[in-house]
Amino acid sequence: MGVEELFHLSSNQSIYEHEVAIGKALDTIPLAELYEQAESALSSGKEGGFEDHLVMALLKWFKQWFKWVNSPECDRCGGETNPRGAEPPRPEEAKYGARAVEIYHCEKCRTLTRFPRYNDPVRLLETRCGRCGEWANAFTLLLKALDLDVRYVWNAEDHVWNEVYSPFHERWIHVDSCEEAYDRPLIYADGWGKKMSYVIGFSVTGARDVTRRYVRRPDASLPRNRFNEAELEQVLQGITIDLRQRMTAEMREIYSERDEVEEAEMMSYQEEQVVEVPRQSGAPDWVAQRGEDGRS
Ligand SMILES: [Zn+2]
User: Fold this and answer.
1) Residues whose CB is under 5 A from ligand 1 (ion)?
2) Each residue of 21-37: pLDDT tens digit?
3) Domain 81-120, CATH
């Protein structure tokens, strides 16, 4: 992972802007139902604005609609499977952005099942399954389809999630679709006991190091030795300036004001710890193996 990967993650955000992808997402989301839930939460006086309630409704729906995969079911008999390594993708899998295909063996009927790790979010709306990568990828598209300002958040310790900009709260809000979590940025450090080095948010309007939102205590942090700090800052700033070049001066002003507010927000985090719950998604042993069971 070098700075090239940062540029790649940034440029990848434009895939969620494609009209066909947005259209497919809008066909998938039960819009009327979610709008109704958001309206009713709003009128019942629950905290937040319409967009906040809409994202919470989307999270709730998505959590039961999209499936978590540890080992996939056997293609042939539906039985349990065990991992048997990985293979390069076939053309029909590579077509949907699969860079690797995990292979699973069924003990019962002794056949192999392929689990292509698709990167095409539209394809994921059809397969409706995966691990955090697939969840965050598909969820980014759905949030985009609702016309929200969305970040795809990359963590160096193998997790990804989202952030949405809340017009009501006037700040970026943590959103993790695997955990149905809204505005619980300390879920990783305090709930999972996860230690992190870098957390970077990418959107079509910029790239930002948001580690301080998620790592607020020294004992929840890992050494930051992947990038030179000055170079990282320069790269993220460069990406942001570049992305905002096509904006009107007025829009650019709005986004720089948001940046300033966000900087003040992140500066304000002192050492704090809230009570969080352990990770909900994934099999217990897999979660423990990743050091995310809140016990480390
Ligand atoms: Zn089988």
Assistant:
1) 74, 76-77, 79, 106, 108-109
2) 999 999 999 999 999 99
3) 2.20.25.10
Task: Using pLDDT thresholds of 50, 70 and 90, give the confidence band for residue 295.
Answer: low
What are the domain boundaries of the chain? 3-69+131-285, 81-120
Give, in order, the Cα–Cα distances in Å from 37 to each of 140, 144, 172. 20, 19, 22
State the complex-level ipTM.
0.98
Q: Is the pLDDT of residue 14 over 90?
A: yes
For 170: left if phi > 0, alpha if psi spans -120 to 50, otherwise beta; the answer is left
Centroid of ligand 1 to alpha carbon of 138 (angstroms): 28
Q: Which of 120, 149, 176, 190 is the catalytic position?
A: 176
Residue 132 falls in the annotated catalytic set: yes
Specify the CATH class of 3-69+131-285 in words.
alpha beta
**Which backbone phi and psi does 100 adopt, to 5 degrees?**
-140, 150
